[in-house]
C-alpha cells in the first residue's frame, strides 16, 4: 500500500509539474512571439533606410527566442555534451550543416547547442518541413527567412526550384552564414523501412540508426551558395560562398529520442543528449550529382558507425590517431536566460498597454 501511495505521489508531482510547465510556456509564447513581430513592425522604416542594421536586430531577437526554447529543456535538466571538432572556430564562416533526424527534439537540441557558437544562431537559415509553418514558431521562421519544404515526389522538382530562388533572394541579402538541413527528409522511425528496402534493391549499405539521405536540397544549396572560381572548381572565399560542410550527429541515451512534447512537459528525468561534429572544407566536397551522392551516402554510413559505437559504449569513437575521444559539456548562462525571459515578459506587458491605449483612442 505504501508503495502504491508513493507511486501515486510521484505521478501527481509529474502531472502538476507538466501543467505548470505548459502554462509557463503558453504565456511565454503569448508574450515573446507577438513582441518579436511588433518590434519588427515598428522597425520597418529602418529596414528601408539600413537593411543590414534591421536584420542584425532581427537576428538578435531571433537568437533570444531560440534561447527561450533552450531554457525550457535546460530547466528540466536536458543538457548537451559535445564531441568531435570544435565548430566555434568557424562560427563566422559560411557553412552547410547536415544533421541526422530522429524526432522533433532534434531541432530543440540544435537550438540549445548552437547558442554558444558566436553569431551562428542569429545568422542561420533553417530548412524544415512545411508543416512547421503552421506551428507557434512558424511565423517567426517565416519572417526570419527560413525555407519550408514540401516532401514527396509530386512536389520535389518545384520545391528545389523554389529553394534555389529563396537562397538567391534571402541568403546573402540577410547576411546568413550557416544553413541547416536534415538530408534524410523525415524522421528515422518513418523512413527506416523504406530506406532499407531501397538500399537492398540498389546494393547500398543496410542502415539501422540513420536512413539514406536524399540529394536534392543538398545539391541545390552547394551549387547555389558555393563560390565558383574561373576554372569552374569550387574555392574558398572569405566574403562569399560556403566554406565548410559540418556533419552533425545527434545521439540520445539508449536510442530513445527526445520529442517536443518532452521539452514542453518535462516528464522525462534529466537527460544528456550527445552531439558529434565533423567539419569538411568545401573543396573536399564534390559538386557533380553522382559523386556528391556517393559522398553523402558515405557520411551517413559514418553516422551509422558513430551511433552504433555510441549505443554500445556510451561514447563516440576517438579520432584517428587518438586513444580516447574528448567530450565537452555545453553550458548556458542561467542569468542570461533569466534576462532574456524577463525582457520577453516586460515587452509583452508593454505592448499590451500600448495596444490597449491605441484601442481606447480609436474606439
Automatic annotation (TrEMBL):
Residues 95-219 form the Phospholipid/glycerol acyltransferase domain. GO terms for biological process: phosphatidylinositol acyl-chain remodeling; phospholipid biosynthetic process. InterPro entries: Acyltransf_C, Plipid/glycerol_acylTrfase. Coiled coil: none annotated. This is Lysophosphatidylglycerol acyltransferase 1. SMART domains: PlsC (SM00563). PANTHER family: 1-ACYLGLYCEROL-3-PHOSPHATE ACYLTRANSFERASE-RELATED, ACYL-COA:LYSOPHOSPHATIDYLGLYCEROL ACYLTRANSFERASE 1. GO terms for molecular function: acyltransferase activity. One of its GO terms (cellular component) is endoplasmic reticulum. It comes from Xiphophorus couchianus (Monterrey platyfish). The chain crosses the membrane at residues 20-42, 54-75. Belongs to the 1-acyl-sn-glycerol-3-phosphate acyltransferase family. It comes from the Eukaryota. Keywords: Acyltransferase, Lipid biosynthesis, Lipid metabolism, Membrane, Phospholipid biosynthesis, Phospholipid metabolism, Transferase, Transmembrane, Transmembrane helix.
